[in-house]
Structure to design on (418 residues):
């Protein structure tokens, strides 16, 4: 019996609502965004039409109804395509608003009407602008909007505003207050989106690199193990071919069996890269006896001891951890066959509640330089590190070599790749 797995902490409801709202916004397609902007443009046009319908207290100017409608359409309708042409929309809305305010088609006290369109236009403009030309356009639009309110006062020969007009100070600041804040906010959000896109691209590239490294490790373990056994058995068969044909035949059978097993593993690994191929399980704890038997047929006397809970291994250990255990044992016995055979090798796997321990020891004598750290030991150390475990490998005091690894049963850390 194993201890129950710890449950993950629950996510607060407020956090869930925030995540759902964020995902909803991100799922909006271009057509949906255009529909939303079209509705917004209709609302803004209605606001501008109501603003144009207002009459100054002095009763002048008194423009016809079609002029008020045309003004509202020129200011509000471009909002529908603000994401498609942000520069053109910002300039068009600015010019139309400036003319309407300067000619008092929209009275000064109703300036918040076109201000709605200007805020939306320059927010999108700021999010899309990334060059010096954008700053020049913003400054020019701010000046033009302020001039549209100050101009009529100056042309009238006085600086005192009418009873229904804003103060001279507010008129001068109108352009900057309407243009700058939404443009700055849009720029900040645009920068954040660009950074998020850059981070996403970086994560994608890192994931691709990790996947290539994973495939490289798998191919190394499969090919190195297989070629070692094939070379050993081929040399034995070549040695005894004339005096003991039966043993040579046995060596050829082992070579054939090993090659077929390697081809099957390579096919399984490559099949995981195809979306249209049924999932094929990778080697695990249940495949260790066959691995040890194959190594024993190549000159090393390998014995296996596995202390594990009863039942299928997939029920209490993730497949990624099983694969790591299998590859560590495979690489270890391959090194024994390659560098220390004939030798006695003991493989011990102990599966606990939270950890699994692998120990591979042998009593063989290795030639000079054979115990140096190679790609096999590096690969084993990388596998263990990805799972957050510990790894040791080196000569034993009494002779031979030992490999020891300790892995958490719960698998790699969140986001880890094996």
């Amino acid at each position: 019996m194993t201890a129950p797995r710890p449950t993950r902490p629950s996510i607060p409801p407020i956090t869930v609502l925030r995540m759902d709202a964020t995902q909803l916004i991100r799922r909006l397609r271009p057509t949906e965004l255009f529909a939303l902007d079209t509705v917004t443009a209709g609302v803004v046009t209605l606001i501008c039409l109501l603003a144009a319908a207002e009459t100054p207290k002095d009763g002048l100017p008194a423009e016809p109804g079609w002029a008020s409608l045309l003004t509202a359409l020129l200011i509000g309708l471009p909002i529908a395509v603000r994401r498609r042409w942000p520069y053109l929309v910002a300039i068009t809305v600015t010019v139309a608003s400036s003319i309407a305010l300067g000619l008092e088609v929209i009275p000064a006290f109703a300036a918040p009407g076109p201000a709605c369109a200007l805020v939306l236009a320059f927010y999108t403009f700021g999010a899309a602008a990334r060059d010096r030309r954008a700053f020049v356009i913003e400054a020019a639009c701010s000046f033009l909007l302020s001039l549209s309110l100050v101009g009529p006062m100056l042309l009238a020969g006085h600086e005192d505003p009418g009873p229904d007009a804003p103060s001279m100070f507010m008129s001068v600041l109108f352009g900057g207050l309407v243009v700058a804040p939404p443009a700055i906010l849009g720029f900040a959000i645009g920068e954040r989106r660009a950074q998020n896109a850059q981070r996403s691209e970086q994560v994608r590239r890192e994931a691709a690199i990790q996947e290539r490294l994973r495939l490289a490790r798998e191919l190394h373990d499969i090919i190195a193990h297989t070629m070692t056994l094939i070379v050993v058995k081929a040399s034995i068969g070549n040695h005894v071919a004339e005096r003991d044909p039966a043993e040579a035949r046995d060596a050829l059978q082992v070579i054939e069996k090993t090659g077929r097993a390697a081809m099957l593993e390579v096919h399984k690994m490559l099949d995981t890269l195809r979306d249209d191929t049924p999932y094929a399980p990778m080697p695990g704890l249940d495949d260790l006896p066959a691995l040890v038997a194959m190594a024993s047929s190549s000159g090393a006397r390998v014995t296996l001891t596995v202390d594990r809970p009863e039942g299928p291994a997939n029920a209490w250990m993730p497949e990624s951890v099983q694969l790591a255990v299998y590859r560590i044992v495979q690489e270890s016995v391959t090194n024994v066959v390659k560098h220390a055979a004939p030798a006695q090798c003991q493989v011990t796997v102990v599966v606990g509640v939270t950890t699994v321990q692998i120990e591979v020891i042998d009593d063989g004598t290795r030639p000079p330089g054979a115990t140096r750290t190679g790609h096999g030991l590096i690969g084993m150390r990388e596998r263990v590190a990805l799972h957050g475990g510990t790894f040791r490998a080196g000569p034993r005091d009494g002779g031979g070599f030992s490999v020891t690894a300790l892995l958490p049963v719960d698998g790699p850390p969140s986001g880890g790749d094996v």
The longest helix spans residues 168-240.
